[in-house]
Structures are given as structure tokens and as C-alpha cells.
Amino acid sequence: LDPTAGSVEVLGQAPRDAVRGGRIGAMLQESGLPILARVGELIDLVRHLSPRPMPAEQIARRAGLTGLLDRRTESLSGGEAQRVRFALAIAGDPDLLFLDEPTVAMDVETRRAFWSDMRASAAEGRTILFATHYLEEADQVADRIVVLDHGRIVADGSSAEIKRGATGRTVRFRLAGADANRLAAIPGVRSVDVHGDRVALETDDPDATARALLATELEVHDLEIAGPDLETAFLALTGGDR
Hints:
about 240 residues, 3-stranded parallel beta sheet, alpha/beta, 10 helices
């Protein structure tokens, strides 16, 4: 799309030129794959459309498709199809890679290998930009996080910087027969969450809460104090509307 005003540059070029030069790759969350085509054939097609393609063997290895090159697309599972989309996105060896919910339908092992590859790719000087609702994933792998709320940027920084903007801490422990009403009366406690013998207290003053808790006769085990996670910070920034 042409800008209505001003100008846009990507990698020092007009976006169309950057795309045409193979410097940008994109992997959509959902996109169709042609039927009756084999995985290896699709990879070769995209490679031949790219001015500086990545070697086919390297693409297959990075996408975890080495054993699937002869498979037809209509026989792929959801996770396998997602890996094919990733292979097509990197076939041109782009400098900038856009990923939209890239690990949807991937199993745990495949997801871990995928992000390991992305970190290695970024270390080589490439830029990886991904959109995700898996906040734990973003917390673990992103160097920079931009939080959007109804199209507006409400936070921009590292995971640690964004989490520092959230108030409150959580005191977690195990306690048999926990009385939520009694725990809610402990100093600093804002909310109580009890699941079986596992208890989580949201508190504004974790030190006072922990001291008061340990001063009781309650048999508390495995006590720990944790700061807000990225999901807590996200909900605080967006008012809880995902």
C-alpha cells in the first residue's frame, strides 16, 4: 500500500523494492498451500523466485522438513503445514522476517527447536518480528516487546521493563485446607486464589504478607514470592481486554 502521506522505508529501501529484492520474508498464521504439490517442489518454486535463495538442504533442515520433502501438502498435519509455511518464508534468505503466530499447532519439541533457530538467525544479524498471544513465549524469546491495545502502542521495551510497570507481587505456597477468607485478611493481600492445597496471594506488600503468614500457626510449605509475569503486565496495560 502507498502511504497517504510521508514516506516509508524498510532496510533503507522502499518496501516494494525490499520485497522484490528478497530481503523480506513473511509467514502468515493461516494461508493455503496448493494441493497435489509435494513439499520439496514448493520449496524449489519459491527458491527460484528469489534473487538470492537459501540452499534447499538448509531450508529443509531449519524447518524440520528433511523427512517430508516427498509428502503432498494435503496429507500434512497442522503443525507440519506450519513448518512448510516457515520454510517458504525463509527460502529467500531474508534480512527481515515477519511471523504471525508462528508456533500455532507446533508440538513442544518443534516449538523449542523453532525458537532456537530464530535466536541463531537473529544472532547472525537478521531481524525477526513476530506477533503472538503466547505471552510466555514472548517473555522467553523477545529482545523487545511492543504491546498493542486496540491499535495503539501502550508499551515498548524489554520484557523486564514492561513487567516493572505492573504493580503487585504474588506469594505462593502449599497449605492443606486453606481458608480463603482468613487469608484475605492478611496485611497487603488483594486477592486469594486456592486450588487444592496450592494458594496464590496477590499482594501490594509481599514482605508484610509473608511475615504475617509465617507468624500464624498455619503449616505453610514451599513458600515463594514472585514478581508480575508478562501476562499480568499485559492485562494491567490493556485493562484486561485481550
